[in-house]
Amino acid sequence: MFKKILIANRGEIACRVIATARKMGIKTVAVYSEADADARHVREADESVAIGPPQSAKSYLVAEKIIQAARETGAEAIHPGYGFLSEKADFARAVEKAGLVFIGPGPDAIGAMGDKIESKKLAKKAGVNTIPGHMDVIADADEAVKIARGIGYPVMIKASAGGGGKGMRIARSDAEAKDGFRSATNEARSSFGDERVFIEKFIEQPRHIEIQVLGDSHGNMVYLGERECSIQRRNQKVIEEAPSVFIDAKTRKAMGEQAVALCKAVGYRSAGTVEFVVGANRDFYFLEMNTRLQVEHPVTEYVTGLDLVELMIRIAAGEKLPFAQKDVKLNGWAIEARVYAEDPFRNFLPSIGRLAHYRPPQSDENVRIDTGVYEGAEISMFYDPLIAKLITYGVDRAEAIGRMRQALDEFYIRGVSNNIAFVSALLAHPRFVKGALTTGLVGEEYPNGFHPADLPHEDPHMLAAAGAFVHQRMAEREAAISGRLPGTKRPGNNWVAVVGPARYPVTVTLNNGGYDIEVEGRNYAIRSDWQPGDPLLRCDLNGRRTCLQVGRLGLGYRIYHGGAQVDVKVLNPRAAELESLMPVKEPPDLSKYLLSPMPGLLVSVAVAAGQEVRAGEELAVVEAMKMENILRAERDGIVSEVHAKPGDSLAVDQKILEFQ
């Protein structure tokens, strides 16, 4: 077995590999860019080596620097993680040429299966059903339009070397094909150093189901069941689960055996994932193969009881798989949610900055958090905005969902925006609960984006009670500090809770270490040792374990629960009466400006001062988190002034254009 390995990656996957290596008694070496000098994976590894500037193309994507770091530290093997160089056959070949072991498949298998174009050709030659499409490299946007017309809209434009939802666009018209080709090509070049794209038919109402495979260098190959990865936004997975509520035993066996046959055809070893698109009648088509560890591998680990990273390391060291296909059993249900630094209420725009507060839910045998950050860490504009992966397990799907919703309530993040509210809404959505999933669910259920109105709280009276609990504790604390307690006079217990536009009369009664709170005739027994200043109100609410996030907001409180955010004021009746008479301040009119919706780099400005523009016309392109975002005119108008130029680093809400 190896004594020391280097992880050619960063963030949560580097920390994940380090954890297993430590369990196996293997020392680890981290590599890091200038932006990651204080990153968690650097702190957790036994050794670390700096490899260059923040840009991936000058650090994490430079194979020579990675291999040199391994040589300098005496590492015997390199684990590539996912992304970056993990699916580069040339990198695997260079690692082997340097006398090191690549913890992954062989270069030939990566070359045959890692390239989306070549893998589809190979699958078709092997008799595997493939989606109709044009697998050759496309020269320019005009050729892309011609090919798309031949296949028939809608089509998917995809980066050949892509992954993680980058370099992918759906086109339903010639104009969208041109825009999609350009953006997909640019993103592919920026993210993977490979600008090739291909086009295939986009199947309506599809499910995205993938099969986890595992093979050794002795000819043994098994499949470890499926993962349901249909909940996606902009082709980026958000929620994954294992097994799939849709796949029956017969289909699972057929998909698994086909995946294994495909892998055997290329002599595959290590962990890998064969992805399929599945129709409503359970017909399935080969989509692509990821010749690496998947982001969502923890759900498979939960239901199989296997450590995939450990098995990858053992296979790379020449060991045989310790089990056969007949030994693979699926038990229980696991769900993974990706927690991103992005603002779901601003069209999911990336959010960068410092994690002023970061408190994940407590992990145990049923709750797992994979992360590469810590409180005070920086979410950089140079890399993916993934904060953490939250994984929960249950004996069945309902239990796994329940644990996930509870854990999300306990996930406390401040300093950057995050998508917890969106994930919570998805988990509570009737279609998700029912299991009626497709890759189009998010777009279909939130066609105009995600808004606070899409996440009303199921019990606003409970939020009023929680606000009253917090306010009563605060009032009693203030009374104690002022010397009025202990004494004959306690703070009042009759309040009015203002929750948005609603007003609820509230009565609070001290009882058994907590309060009995009556809100419009509804009773809430809240028992908790919560003290002012704690952002998490963990309590027993009517006999049920509950957690709410609370914080001061002026004279009131901001409460988060079930993904919903509400502002609550708890006032005495006279103050509530006067408060209702206060005028509402109107926000300033910013409609004449094009503002940057996120921090990022201004790639281009498509208009000039004095130019007339039409609704829907491209105005500018802003790049952030390796994704290009095209900003378009919301209505007809005339540009009066251009406030920023290509190459500028923009802050959120910074002016780009001004209209007459």
Description:
The chain is α+β, with helices and mostly antiparallel strands. The protein folds into 5 domains: 4-103, Rossmann fold (3-Layer(aba) Sandwich), CATH 3.40.50.20; 135-201, ATP-grasp fold, A domain (Dna Ligase, domain 1), CATH 3.30.1490.20; 207-454, D-amino Acid Aminotransferase, Chain A, domain 1 (2-Layer Sandwich), CATH 3.30.470.20; 460-579, Glycoprotein, Type 4 Pilin (2-Layer Sandwich); 593-659, RNA polymerase II/Efflux pump adaptor protein, barrel-sandwich hybrid domain (OB fold (Dihydrolipoamide Acetyltransferase, E2P)). The radius of gyration is 27 Å and the shape is globular. The N and C termini lie far apart (70 Å).
Distinctive features:
single chain; 660 residues; alpha+beta; Rossmann fold; D-amino Acid Aminotransferase, Chain A, domain 1; eight-stranded antiparallel sheet; eight-stranded antiparallel barrel; 39 strands
Q: What is this entry, summarized?
A:
The protein is α+β, with helices and mostly antiparallel strands. 28% of the residues lie in helices and 33% in strands.
Structural class: alpha+beta
Q: Supply the CATH class of the largest domain.
A: Alpha Beta
In the CATH classification, which architecture of the largest domain applies?
Answer: 2-Layer Sandwich
Q: Are there runs of 5+ residues with pLDDT below 50, and where?
A: none
* Neighbour order of strands in the largest sheet: 14-13-10-11-12-15-22-20
How much is the average pLDDT? 92
How many separate domains? 5
CATH superfamily of the largest domain: ATP-grasp fold, B domain
Helix amount: 25-40%
Overall shape: it is globular
Largest sheet: 8 strands, antiparallel
Rg calc: 27 Å
* Count of individual beta strands: 39
Percentage of residues in strands: 25-35%
